[in-house]
TrEMBL record:
Entry keyword Cell membrane: yes
Compartment annotation: Cell membrane
Subunit structure: F-type ATPases have 2 components, CF(1) - the catalytic core - and CF(0) - the membrane proton channel. CF(1) has five subunits: alpha(3), beta(3), gamma(1), delta(1), epsilon(1). CF(0) has three main subunits: a, b and c.
Family label: Belongs to the ATPase epsilon chain family.
Membrane topology, as annotated: Peripheral membrane protein
PANTHER family: ATP SYNTHASE DELTA/EPSILON CHAIN (PTHR13822), ATP SYNTHASE EPSILON CHAIN, CHLOROPLASTIC (PTHR13822:SF10)
Protein species of origin: Gordonia hydrophobica
Database matches in InterPro entries: ATP_synth_F1_dsu/esu, ATP_synth_F1_dsu/esu_N, ATPsynth_dsu/esu_N
SUPFAM superfamilies, alphabetized: Epsilon subunit of F1F0-ATP synthase N-terminal domain
UniProt cross-references to Pfam families, sorted A to Z: ATP-synt_DE_N
Predominant location category: membrane
Role: Produces ATP from ADP in the presence of a proton gradient across the membrane.
Protein name: ATP synthase epsilon chain
Length: 125
């Protein structure tokens, strides 16, 4: 039976946020939402502004990252999320981000960042 995990790296210019094995990844890209399993065909996709990335670790635990721009690189054995900036869902104050969403100009950098963070929280709620 083929291995059902792949190596996942989530990095931003500031830090490596995650490095480990995962079984499933969902990413919001500029062409839509993608679900990726082990042995997926190689591809490169641009991450959507205001999007998030949700993953299922090999242990079964699910988590998400708020991601503002960047790229998703998929090979047969690994996936790399190269984010312009990213944040773990556990570090997000969703009430504060919802307040920013209601007051910021739609499409602005502040709006897209708040939208990304709210999406990440909702992805694992």
């Amino acid at each position: 039976m083929a291995d059902k995990t792949f190596r996942l790296e989530v990095v931003s210019p500031d830090a490596e946020l995650y490095s480990g094995d995962a079984t499933f990844l969902v990413a919001q890209t500029t062409v839509g939402e993608l679900g990726i399993l082990a042995s997926h065909a190689p591809m490169l996709a641009e991450l959507a502004p205001g999007g998030c990335v949700k993953m299922t670790e090999a242990s079964g635990k699910q988590t998400a990252f708020a991601v503002q721009g960047g790229f998703l690189s998929v090979t047969g054995e690994s996936i790399t999320v190269l984010a312009e900036s990213a944040q773990f869902v556990s570090e997000i104050d969703v009430a504060a981000e919802r307040e920013i969403l209601s007051s910021a100009e739609p499409g602005s950098a502040a709006y897209l960042q708040a939208k990304s963070r709210v999406r990440a929280v909702e992805a694992v709620s």
